TrEMBL record, chain B:
Stretch list, region Disordered: 1-23, 248-269, 281-312
Pfam families, sorted: Nop53
Keyword Nucleus: yes
Compositional bias segments (type: Basic and acidic residues): 292-312
Compositionally biased tracts (Basic residues): 12-21
A Gene Ontology cellular-component term: nucleolus
Species per Swiss-Prot/TrEMBL record: Caenorhabditis briggsae
Record's keyword annotation contains Nucleus: yes
UniProt protein name: Ribosome biogenesis protein NOP53
Similarity annotation: Belongs to the NOP53 family.
Length: 532, 431
């Protein structure tokens, strides 16, 4: 009987994957539309394990997608909207050439739009999954909110980015969930804990953003388009959870038209005023768990304690921001800590000479100081949040060289050089630093001095002395020698393969130790010269 | 005065003054003055009058009305239908005389203007922003009311066909384990601690140095190290060799010739004599003996192995144990390999598209640029750049690259008729 051979490329990787070109052909879409669709639906390319198989024998570097993903995309109703849009553009072109303004207006009124509600739910079946994807969304939206509008970046998109980010910041303030901040030269990093999820995002500095050339804006715009839809829902849910009105309301309840006014928007965006809460929702104060847990060194208890510290960080303080300070960042942090913020022209219009100001934030040399308030530089606010307590203000006075600003996101390893200030900060945060401290190598003067034993002078001539016991220290010496020998023997026993790794590890330990020692010595020297 | 008919002084030469006074024809001017005075006396000077005072716009048709084309009754009816005044209030049709069988017809429904009068304004569809709702607590699955279609399977099918309902989402695998936002290192702080800053900057400097080195290396590879370029002067000297213009012509003729001959003798290469040495009898014997010994040894080893194999029957238990162990080991290794593969997939960059991933350069400030306060900070790097790189690193975006141009491997043939061939026509003589 004749054998029936299986045809090549009818199973396995050849069928499981689909190249982008094939996908375009299947979906009848242009590359631009396909890219948009993939981003909106959250479908990403994959590198096949057997590239040659998937590529039907060729080794060219192509973009591959899972076939099942593409099949799934084919059912998407948005594809029809894309096609409608294509028709819309064609009609628009036609009418514009004919200069039929009436019809153009009518056409614009009936512009095809698509709705991303179902897609948001499909991609994030639970609220938690949406929260886990907030990092990207927030970072992009915060940046887009600062960009000028162009042909690709529509004004409406930038406005909604601004709106949604302000809303989110309001939520963080109201729920007092900001945990860490870090000012880097790239921008300011924030970390908040929302529903137990750590959300980290970056906000560029409040300067004109430089022009970027090698960024494909059309791609990012599509991402932002989806994130705007998602953030809207997330914000709504977050607001619902803590009993706030959505869209946010300040003071009295206002209606639709008034909310759209520029003045009202500015008020909301300034973050300076607290939001109105719904009457029908009971406000819960959860102080109980802390009492239940007690003063354990348990990690959870520690966390709860930290959260409570942050909530009452700036309670009862009134801050006045000088006009050169970054208002958004400072307002965000201070209000998160329960403080009150104001500046000239703010919604609450705090005057510089107001009597109830406790802290005045200044970022330039001052010559006229008032007596009954503390003057600090902006870094103090950031460092206070990271340290979870109000730091002494002496080192942050205007005109004083500031202490270094540490990143709260780095975790210290035992054996590294940790500056004295950082150790202090860690200790103040209630962390156990004994291990870190112990691992710091000691300088010569720190080591316990070996006391020279004063030998009793031997009497000259023949004499009789009491017999001496065998020296214990010598025994110890022998022991250490033996230990060393044993170690050496064990080192010899290591297989050749692992020997190299072992030695390289040893040298790095040694190097790190030396580095740390050197740095410590330097710091000591600097301190000594400063004191002298 | 008629032309050609001259009288009196006019008969004389036209060059003289006399002619100017007497012979000039002034009738035109006199006529014009007369006209003007007459106009002034009768109504007014026409030249000074405005258009409206003189002319009247003629509003009456001058030509006879064109006759209407003859129309059939049908055409006339159609014309009336399209030209009738639709703003006119329409009343119900006249009541039929005689027996009434049906109800009177209603007003035609499509009278838009009447509706407009009545106050029903049609507003163009505006894309209003819908208020947000709780997506996670609302059911978004499309439905069809039961009275329209009560067969659930049919409903399902219908919704799928009209793309209202989506098929099940394919299982989403986690694309990456990398964090979405990587926080900048401590050294990138706007007011960094000196040791952290040092560490951060030395790392960047090291990377930069490596880049410079690699660039230099490629440069070295591309450029020939000891390339000799013939200059124009050298070329000239070579061409002028032996000519009168050569600076060294006839200078030391003899010396050069001698040196040339000497060099010539040195350059000839001599091959060594080819020898063919044969092995002596002794050597042959030795070699044969060694070969024999080797063969014996091989045989002995084979024998030994066979014997050992035969003994293996008694240690099957041991062998089973060994095999089991080997299998177990292999399984452990394969598991580890799988784990590593997965980890690589989730943490490393995949090759997606033609382009190569370029790691973003970490921004840094020089020591003198670190102002130490927030007001004078000099922001570095761009967040969007970072975002883009992060998306690429997490395998969420393909990286495009230019397609390599293919060089033509075969050239096209072109048919050309040479002139000499073209010249040959019918009847031309072959020489």
């Amino acid at each position: 009987m004749k054998d029936r051979f299986k045809q090549k490329y009818t199973a396995g990787a050849a069928v499981a994957y689909m190249s982008r070109k094939q996908a375009l052909k299947k979906l009848q879409l242009t590359l631009k539309d396909f890219r948009r669709l993939c981003i909106i639906k959250g479908i990403y390319p994959h590198e096949p394990a057997h590239k040659k198989q998937a590529n039907k024998g060729s080794t060219a570097n192509k973009v591959f997608y899972y076939r099942k993903d593409i099949n799934f995309l084919a059912h998407e109703p948005i594809i029809n909207k894309f096609r409608d849009y294509k028709v819309f553009l064609r009609k628009l072109n036609h009418l514009k050439a004919k200069k039929e303004d009436e019809k153009i207006k009518k056409l614009y009124d009936n512009k095809p739009v698509y709705n991303l509600d179902t897609i948001v739910k499909e991609r994030f079946p639970t609220f938690g999954s949406a929260l886990r994807d907030m990092d990207d969304a927030l970072s992009l939206c915060f940046t887009f909110a600062m960009l000028p509008h162009t042909r690709v970046l529509k004004e409406g998109m930038i406005d909604s980015c601004r709106k949604l980010t302000a809303e989110f910041m309001h939520y963080v303030i109201e729920s007092q969930s900001l945990r860490n901040t870090f000012i880097s030269i790239k921008g300011i990093y924030y970390q908040a804990e929302v529903h137990g999820e750590k959300i980290t995002w970056v906000v560029p500095h409040e300067r004109g953003l430089p022009h970027v050339t090698d960024v494909d804006f059309t791609v990012l715009v599509t991402f932002v388009e989806f994130y705007i839809a998602m953030l809207g829902f997330v914000n709504f849910k977050l607001y619902q959870d803590i009993g706030l009105f959505y869209p946010p309301q300040i003071g009295q309840v206002v209606e639709g038209d008034e909310m759209e006014s520029e003045e009202y928007k500015e008020k909301v965006y300034s973050l300076a005023k607290p939001l109105a809460k719904r009457k029908d929702v009971e406000q819960t104060e959860d102080d109980e768990p802390l009492d239940l847990l007690g003063e354990d060194s348990d990690a959870l208890a520690q966390k709860v304690k930290e959260a409570k510290n942050i909530k009452t960080l700036f309670k009862g303080c009134v801050f006045y921001l000088n006009r050169e300070c970054p208002k958004e960042a400072l307002t965000f942090i201070i209000r998160n800590g329960g403080g009150v913020v104001g500046w000239e022209g703010a919604p609450n219009d705090l005057k510089a000479d107001s009597k109830n100001i406790t802290h005045h934030i200044v970022d330039r040399p001052m010559d006229k100081l008032e007596v009954n308030r503390l003057y600090v530089q902006p870094q103090w606010v950031f460092d206070c949040l990271n340290a979870r307590r109000k730091l002494p203000t002496e080192r942050y006075m205007p005109g004083v060289a500031l202490p270094p600003h540490f990143s709260p996101f780095t975790s210290e390893k035992a054996g590294d050089y940790i500056p004295f200030e950082r150790l202090e900060e860690l200790r103040s945060m209630g962390k156990d630093v004994s291990e870190l401290e112990a691992a710091i190598p000691k300088t010569m003067d720190e080591l316990p001095m070996r006391r020279k034993e004063v030998k009793p002078e031997k009497p000259k001539g023949i004499h009789i002395a009491v017999g001496q016991m065998h020296k214990k220290s010598k025994e110890k010496f022998h022991e250490t020698v033996e230990k060393g020998q044993e170690l050496k023997m064990r080192e010899l026993m290591i297989s050749k393969k692992h020997q190299r790794v072992y030695h390289s590890m040893k040298t790095t330990f040694k190097r790190n130790r030396n580095d740390a020692l050197k740095l410590k010595k330097k710091a000591k020297l600097v301190k000594a010269t400063a004191e002298a | 005065m008629a032309p050609g008919k001259r009288t009196g002084a006019a008969k004389g030469s036209r060059h003289n003054k006399k002619y100017w006074r007497k012979g000039t024809d002034i009738t035109d001017i006199e006529d014009a003055i007369h006209d003007r005075s007459h106009q002034a006396a009768t109504g007014g000077i026409v030249e000074d009058m405005k258009d409206e005072e003189i002319f009247v716009v003629d509003r009456l048709p001058t030509s006879k009305k064109t006759e209407e084309p003859q129309r059939t009754r049908k055409q006339q009816a159609a014309l009336e239908k399209i030209t009738r005044n639709i703003t006119q209030e329409q009343v119900s049709l006249p009541k039929p005389t005689g027996k009434v069988l049906k109800k009177p017809a209603k007003l035609p429904r499509g009278n838009a203007i009447l509706k407009l009068k009545a106050g029903v304004k049609k507003v163009a569809k505006r894309q209003e922003k819908e208020p947000k709702f709780d997506v996670w607590n609302t059911d978004l699955t499309p439905r069809i009311p039961k009275e329209k279609l009560d067969n659930p399977e049919a409903v399902e099918h219908f919704l799928k066909v009209v793309k209202k309902k989506q098929p099940k989402t394919p299982g989403k695998s986690i694309t990456t384990l990398l964090p979405a936002v990587e926080v900048a290192q401590g050294g990138a702080s706007y007011n960094p601690e000196s040791s952290e800053y040092q560490e951060y900057v030395t790392r960047i400097a090291g990377e930069e140095q490596r880049l410079i080195d690699s660039e230099e290396k490629t440069k070295r590879g591309i450029e020939p190290q000891w390339e000799k370029v013939t200059t124009e002067h050298e070329r000239f000297l070579e061409m002028a060799e032996g000519l009168r213009i050569h600076p060294n012509f006839n200078k030391n003729d003899e010396e050069t010739t001698t040196t040339v001959t000497q060099e010539g003798t040195e350059e000839t290469v001599k091959n060594g004599p080819v020898t063919c040495e044969r092995m002596t009898k002794e050597q042959k014997k030795k070699k044969a003996k060694a070969a024999g010994l080797e063969k014996d040894e091989k045989k002995r080893l084979e024998e030994k192995a066979r014997e050992q194999d035969s003994h293996n029957v008694y240690r099957t238990k041991q062998l089973h144990k060994e095999l089991d162990e080997e299998e177990k080991q292999r399984h452990v290794e394969s598991e580890a390999r799988k784990k590593k593969k997965l980890l690589n997939k989730l943490t490393k960059r995949q090759k997606l598209g033609r382009g190569a991933f370029v790691e973003a350069e970490d921004p840094f400030l020089l020591k003198e640029e670190l102002t130490g306060n927030l007001r004078q900070i000099k922001p570095q790097g761009h967040v969007l750049d970072d975002r883009m790189k992060s998306l690429q690193r997490r395998n969420m975006l393909p990286i495009g690259g230019t397609k390599a141009k293919k060089l033509k491997t075969s050239l096209k043939s072109k048919v050309v008729e040479k002139r000499s061939v073209k010249e040959v026509v019918k009847g031309s003589r072959v020489i």
